[in-house]
């Protein structure tokens, strides 16, 4: 059975001290009862080694927001998958639309990153999603299928270790969300492509998260869809109450 997951993406927010406070606050908020879903926080690299030992690993997984497409060596400023794993982090977001748009990450680069993440025991949270013009031209299926090729190079065994996140770029940080029906439609399509590439069992076991202006007020409706297995949360992951409100969408 696939897992329900709520994952936070802090992006380039929070100093180390602020990030430690946020992680502590979330840990406290989840102390009383076990959430009804897996909870992950993906933080800036420099927070990882401090945040990982602070949170109850049985309730909160920690991840990075990126890793290098090279194993090690003369790549000034880069952080390898092995370095991420050495902090105790277990996850890594790869292929976020901001990385694709601002840092030129394409399928070839992302395949390398995914393979290195897996080789170092990290679970990739692999992001896909169309921009507004592509949605307006009704090209979203084509776009996500093309982006998925970066992970469809993997064996079924390796692919099964990945989490997918569908994030329509027009909904990220804009306050606009895909409607529950739009999310369900494309998540079902994504799952059908997993059946085509691998098989029904692999597809059935893959968690596909929705991302893009997910809030406590709309999380329940989005997550109620049969093919929406949780969320990747940006802005609302920066406040304990908001993030907890989204986690609680799985409790009601
Ligand atoms: P948002 O970001 O929740 O602020 O829209 C989501 C994301 O980019 O992962």
Would you kindly provide a brief summary of this structure?
Helix content is 42%, strand content 15%. It is α/β, with parallel strands linked by helices and 252 residues long.
Overall, the morphology is globular
- Count of β-strands: 8
Order of helices and strands: EHEHEHEHHEHHHEHHEHEH
Report the structural category.
alpha/beta
Bound molecules: 2-phosphoglycolic acid
Tally of helical segments: 12
Global mean pLDDT: 97
List the strand order in the largest sheet.
1-2-3-4-5-6-7-8
The share of residues in helices is: 40-55%
Taken as a percent bin, the fraction of beta residues is 15-25%
Care to describe what's here?
It is a single chain. This protein is α/β, with parallel strands linked by helices. The chain is about 40% helix and about 15% strand. It contains twelve helices and eight strands. It has helices at about 15-30, 45-50, 80-85, 95-105, 105-120, 130-135, 140-150, 155-160, 180-195, 200-205, 215-225, 240-245, and strands spanning about 5-10, 40-45, 60-65, 90-95, 125-130, 165, 210, 230-235.
Which terms would index this structure?
single chain, 252 residues, alpha/beta, 8-stranded parallel barrel, 12 helices, 8 strands, 42% helix, binds 2-phosphoglycolic acid
